[in-house]
Amino acid sequence: MKTFTSRFALTFAALTLGFGIACSASADTLDEVKAKGKLVVAIDPTFAPYEYTDDAGNIVGYAPEIMKHVAARLGVQLEYQKMAFSGIIPALIAGSVDAEGSSLNVTAERADKVLFTVPFGKSVNAVLVRADEQRIAAKPLTVESLAGLTAAVKTTTAPEQLLKQFNTELKAKGLETIKIVSVDSVDQTLATLMTRRADFVFDDITVLGGLAQKLPGKLKQVGELGDSQWISWATRKDDERLNQLISDEILALKASGELQKLQQQYLGVTFELPSTDFIPTK
């Protein structure tokens, strides 16, 4: 399974290429979309459960469900153009598509090149335990509350490295470290937890949500640790009207509770999302 870090990587060379040909982008894409009756969106549907291709070849997932609502709000058809993830922002800046529909981590560097919509997703590591676990109950969850316990984690991932960082912090405070059981797959982390060889699984909230859906009522998330990153879409810088329409639809889905239902359905977890001040500074 791809990690969030690798999935959202984008080469500097690709960004530079797109920026160099930005002059071809339309200054009023919203009117053009309405005139032609379709919204053309770039996507790399290889990032389940956010966006992926099902057995019938349909593009499905949490993000496409939201994009369907955007197209309905516009009163137009939705047309996807599949492409490699590294080519999406250059294609957007070049004007080859109206918007992009792959889930992007919101970063200050990307904000220099594109205009982000309000976030619809969140990436952060969290702790998953068995439903009967009582030892990890601190609110908010702290690194200290995990001292002396055993964690199951997928090997060579960002969550594994974060656990090692936590152990450095615990040692510095004279506390017992976390015992780390590194395995080869996400499913193996679940097996390690359920056979009581580990006290908790540490991974991204969406990964943990998927595991919880496999065993309803037997697992629970008890808190998040580490930095969060917001997940959003982007338009060209000068497409403020289209960007605002997309953002308005996301906010409307949030206000109605529909967004939370889609989160639970596709991600197995719900979370709060900001509507302002979500772009990090450099």
TrEMBL record:
PROSITE patterns: PROKAR_LIPOPROTEIN. InterPro entries: Solute-binding_3/MltF_N (IPR001638). Residues 38-270 form the Solute-binding protein family 3/N-terminal domain. Transmembrane segments: none annotated. Keywords: Signal. Residues 1-27 form the signal peptide. It comes from the Bacteria. Belongs to the bacterial solute-binding protein 3 family. This is Amino acid ABC transporter substrate-binding protein, PAAT family. It comes from Phytopseudomonas punonensis.
